[in-house]
Each structure stands twice: as structure tokens, then as C-alpha cells.
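User: These chains co-purify. Model them together.
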Amino acid sequence: MISTKSLSRRGFLNMGAAAGASLILPKTGVIKPAYAAGPLAPVAEADAHIAFGHTGPTSDEGWTWAHDQGMKAVEAAFPALRTSYVESIPYSADATRIFRQFVADDACMVFATSNYGDFLYDVAKRAPDVAFYECDGRNPMDNLGTYYVAHWYPSYVAGIAAGAMSKTGKLGYVASFPVPSVYSGTNAFLMGARTVNPEATLQSIVINSWFDPQAATQAGVALIDAGCDVLFGIMDEAGYLQVAEERGAKAVMWNTDLRRYGPNAYISSIMVDFGPWYVEQVRRRLAGEWTPTYDLLPFGAGVDVDAWGETVPADVAAKADAVKASILDGSFNPFMGEIKDSKGTIKVAAGQTMTEEELYHWNWSIEGVSGLDS
Amino acid sequence: MSYRLQRMPVAAPSVLFAARVLSVILALLTAAVVLALSGKDPVALGGKVLSSTFGSSFGLEDLSLLFSPLLYCGLAVAVGLRIGAWNIGAEGQFNLGAFAATGVALFVPGPTWLLVPLMALTGMAGGALWILIPTLAKAYADVSELITTLLMNFVALLLVYWVATGPWLDPSGMALATTARLSVSVPYVWGIVHWGLPVALMLAIGLAVMFAYTRWGYEVRIGGGNPGAAAYAGMPVQRHVIIVMLMSGAIAGLGGMMEVAGTVGRLQGGISNNYGYLGIMVAVLARAAPLGVIATAFFMAVILNGGIVLQSQGLTTHTVLAVTGLILFYAAIADEVARYRLIPTTGKVTPKGAR
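Assistant: Joint model of the two components:
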């Protein structure tokens, strides 16, 4: 077990936010004590180059846009340093080439805003003086940390509204890949919906991309054709919201407020804000305090539900808001047993509560979710 | 005296070469003007591309790792073109080669010296298998391989996505949407450049020799140029089509095996990085000559690596794609233009056939 709790907590407390959870890496695989080497040497602000590698275009009005706002926050806080970014990096050896190019260009800190795995690690291994962060990462290294958002809580809250507003009880989900963030998102959303509609089910379609507006739109159409009347997903753009608007269905989005693309369909969005976190990490890097952290931005401080859409009834909004308040004040945790997987096996016994690490590494569907487990 | 344009059946090599050089210069000039108009310094950017690509071992390693898969895919398409078959499916065969080799690495225990050749063989078999149906359909039913090979690409890609996120998903939970790291890898020859590159270069030379100096190569060239004449001369055109197309698939499959076992280390969707489609351009620019493929694959690797450098200098992918497209566009025009010559026309009408 890696004792990063104090570190990342201190970071969040410094920021005046609620305490962030730190992530413990999976029990299998090689776990070594990270940052045994001590903090990286300080860098003068005028000499610093901070680089960002994105999976989509910064104009997506979603995930990449939100990270780009984070970069702008860094620029505002440290006007003398240099930033650079590359958009639409594929998950291929090209990613390695781009991250290596950042290092060759004297970057002192590199943020990969998506999980590039070995394509990033291969570069980090050969650049021990450069600080790396991988969003949604799972591999501790002396100079590589990870960061992500506890999106399962807002997904659960939005699921309550979705369950109340669905007439068919069939929810649809446009998935990128069958990865933990998709499992936790679909499961939490359906668990929320089932608190108001116990018979609700969720059908997902995997499109093998985070940013493919055409495929996401096709998936949205297919889900509505199959009877789903509320769509959710983990897309970096607004494609399926427009489908829902045209077809008279509802939709919950990710990343940003997208209601103008479908004012009648819009229920809410899982809003992210990485700005303060980015500024804090860059500050630590420049000050010579940086060691890798494994940070999960908590519900209410980095990830939240957006203000409810105009067609969400007041009583539905009030019910979901009450649950949100009880999660935030710690009096309620939605991820308590008994929870069964899609094959009917009890995975979380009655009385047990899933830990933040288990939620982060969630890799099975709950009963009622289809389309992910192979 | 006036002039008119005359189209030649083939361009003279010297004219073709000059046209190629001119096209690259023109394309770079056009790109420079576009960059200057958008407020960038084209000279500084050009210098950055050259120094980042050729000025460091990092750059040369990256270049070599791009060069290698482009060679395999370029050769795969070029070999097919020799018998008149358009293999648009190198992308799929590349994926299948990677898939088959990964299967060996994940499930067959053994030492590296045994497993790497075995993976190479299964990778080639995977690539050949993926073009088998289009090959038989072309040879026996005259079904256009353009469509069949293309469609097989999507099946291969989805197959790789499925195994990498499903049955072969890394059980450690440390990596997303990918298989476990392969236990064996292709040995390095220099830095992180593995044996895939020298093998590809040897393959290109070997193919050039086979096409130029063997009876088989001669028959394939004739069969590709004029199947009717070749058949009339008693050459087994159908058999050549089958063998050459399977070779084409096997070469692309070997490229996929080298990519997964040498460069990437894990099987995952997107591993092919469009090399299969880029290979079509490589082969066409090389006019299907194996030795020409070495030159055009290298050229393409420089362009692609330059594109990555430009992206890190704040240019968007769209600008980089546009510049890349521009260079290829000019090269294609230059090829065509090189076939024309200006000849003076006199007032006298030359009778047909007379000189």
C-alpha cells in the first residue's frame, strides 16, 4: 500500500477544497514505493515549460476543453512560464513520439489528459527529471502520478433524475471502451435510477473512441430505436444530446454545460474543473516540492452535477439535490451492498461499502447493465 | 512556331526525378506561405523539424520506428500491384499479424530465440489468412479485391478491439483497453530500434532481386502488365495472383507482428496507426518498385515525424494533415506532369504514323 494520503490531502487542504481521496493501486502487479528518489529540483518560472497531451481537440466543448481551461488557469497563475499542448493524440506509438518531443523540447512537467499507458511510461522512464501526470492512470512511478475525478457520485445523483424522468425504464449509455470509468459511470447511473424505478435497466454501446461525434450520434440513434428514452455516456462532445433533442428523449452529459445543444433534452452534466488542481501541481513543481501524487478530485471540488435542465420537474430536482447533500455531508454512501454483478453473483455483501479504490478500479457491470461484460 | 503538349506512355527517369524534387520544394513553399500567413515563422519551424528529426538520437529512433512499419505496408501494397492487385487491406492484415503474434506471446511459453521467429511466422500466417478470401474471390470469381480487402480492415480492427478489451484484457488492472505486456520482444539493434527495420530493408532488397532476376518475377510482371498476353504465353497467371496476394498479406502481417512485439509491446486497438493506408501512398509514390519503397517510406516517415514536431510547436493536427496532404498532392501531380513534353508544331500537317 502506498502512503500518499497525507501528501494529496495536504494539497487539497492547501487549495481550500474538501479533502481529496488518494488512490491505492491494484492489489495485483508490482507495487513499489513511489517517489523514493525525493522531490524534483525546483525550476525558475521563466525557464519552465509545461506540456499537455490531449486525446481530443481543445474545441470539443468537453473533456479536452476542460483540461485546456486548466492550462489557461496555469498560464494566469504563472504568467512567465511557457505552455504547449498537442491535440488528438492517437493511442498508438505516435503518442510516444509526441511525449518524447515534449521532453526533447525541455518540458519540466507533462500532463497526459487521458490514459496513454506504456506509450507514456516508456517516455517517463527515460526522463527521470521530468514530472509526469497521467489522467485516469494506474501505474506508480518515481516521476509519474495520476489524477482523476470521483465521477460516480454525480453520476449516481444524475441517475436519480434520469430514473424519475424515464417512461420506458430503459436507459442508454454511449460508452468509449469497456474500462473502469465506464463501468463505474454506468453502474452508478443505474443505481441512482433504481432508487426511483427499481425495474430500470441500462443498455450500453461501445464506440471505441472518446471523441467520434459521428459514431456517438449513431449509437444514440440505435439506443433510442431500442426503446431507451434517457441517454447517458462518456463522450467529449454533444452528439447524442442532439439526437435526444430531435427524438424527444432526455440526456445526461459529461464535462461542461451543453444545454444549448438540446434545451428540452438536457437533464444535467457531470461537470469537471481541473484548474485549481493543475495550478497547485505546477506550483509544487516550480517550488521543488513535487513528488508524484495519486489524486482523485472529490465530489463538490473538481467534479459536480450541473444545474438541472429546464424540463426537469421541481420535485425530481429536489429529490436528487437532497441525495447529493447527504452524500456531500457524509451521511450517505450509495455504493453499499448488497450489489450483484450482471451474472447474479454477489460482489459486495450486505453491510459492506465499496472503497474509493474499488470504485476507481470497478471492472464489472451490476445486474441490469448490458453491453459491457464480454 | 507554336507548341503543343504531348503525353508520353512512360516518363523518363531523370524527368520524373526532377519533377519529384520540384514538387516537394513547391509543396514546402506553399506550406511556408500558409504558415507565414497564420503568423508562424516557417524557417524556424523548418529548422526545428530538421533538428528534431535528424539532430538527436531520440529523433532518429522515432524516425526509424516510423520507417519500419511504413516499409512493411508499402512493400505489401507494392507486391500486390506487381500482379495488378490493389491490396487496400494492408491495415487489416497488419492488425491480424499483430493479433496472431500476440496470441503466441500470451499463450505459448518458450525462450525468446524460439518465440520471436514463431511469432513472425504466425504474424505472416495471420496476414495471409486475412487476404485469403479476397484472393480466392479475385482468382476464381473475378471479384474486385479493392472492395473485399478494404472491408476486411474493419473486421480486423473490431476483432483487435474486442480481444484487447475482452478476453485478452490485461488481468493486472494496471492498463486499460489493452492486453498484458508481451513477455518476449523483438531484440534491439540500436537504441529502441528493433530488428523490424533491418528485416524490412532486407525484404525490400530481396523482393527487388526476385522481381528483376527470377523467372517467377518476370512472369509476375508480365501477368500484372497484361494478364491476357501472359496467359496466352502459357504463364499460370491465376496461380501467380494467388501466391503474390498471399505474400502481400503476409508482409503486412509481419509488419504488424514487428509493431506489437518490437515497438508497442501490447496489443490494443489503434496499433496500426493507419500504416496500412499510408502504405498505399508509399507504394504508389514508389511506382510499386521494392527499392523505390525504401525511398518513399523514408520520405513518408520524415513527413510524419515532422508533423509530430510541428504539432508540439503549436500547430493543430489539421494544419499538419493539410501540409502532409499538400506534399503528396504535388508529388502525384508531378508524376503525371512528367509524362508530358512540349513539342514544337510546324504549319505542316504530319501524316499519322509518319515521323
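The two ends of chain B are 18 Å apart (CA to CA).
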